[in-house]
Design brief:
By secondary structure, the protein is α+β, with helices and mostly antiparallel strands. 51% of the residues lie in helices and 15% in strands. It is built from 6 helices and 4 strands, in the order ααβαβαββαα. The protein has a 4-stranded mixed sheet, with helices on both faces. β1, α3 and β2 form a beta-alpha-beta unit. The termini are far apart.
Length: 134
């Protein structure tokens, strides 16, 4: 997204920062079955967290990048930029299950309109199945 690229440029994020962010994302996602990247002030993040609380009783790793996107520092902005590069999705939350990006609250991986995001996955029962199969 445009604001993501602008923020990265203004904060002086370079390829080293992006590579470090990618390594950290990959490490966190590989170490935890369910991971959610959030903003503290985002209603979409709150709703996604509540949904995960219902499904996995808090058994997930929450990575809070900051209060909101425009308040991020250099490292957090690099993480946000790398999440966009890795998933095609610029907005948070980002949810990973068993190492696979399953989207955000209402958007699927790579903003695929056929992949509904975790709200629709929960409504259809697919989210529970994904969590039970792991």
């Amino acid at each position: 997204s445009l604001e993501n690229k602008l923020q990265a440029r203004l904060l002086g994020i370079d390829n080293v920062d992006l590579e470090q962010a990618k390594d950290e994302i990959e490490r966190v996602v590989s170490e935890h079955r369910v991971v959610i990247y959030t903003y503290a002030l985002s209603p979409f993040s709150w709703e996604a967290l509540a949904l995960l609380d219902d499904e996995v009783c808090g058994a997930y790793k929450k990575v809070e990048l900051g209060q909101e996107w425009f308040l991020l520092g250099k490292a957090q902005s690099a993480t946000r930029a790398q999440l966009l590069a890795m998933t095609g999705q610029s907005s948070l939350p980002h949810v990973f299950i068993d190492g696979t990006h399953v989207g955000g609250l209402f958007t699927g991986p790579n903003n695929d309109s056929k992949a509904p995001g975790i709200a629709a996955l929960k409504e259809s029962g697919q989210l529970k199945n994904m969590l039970l199969l792991g």
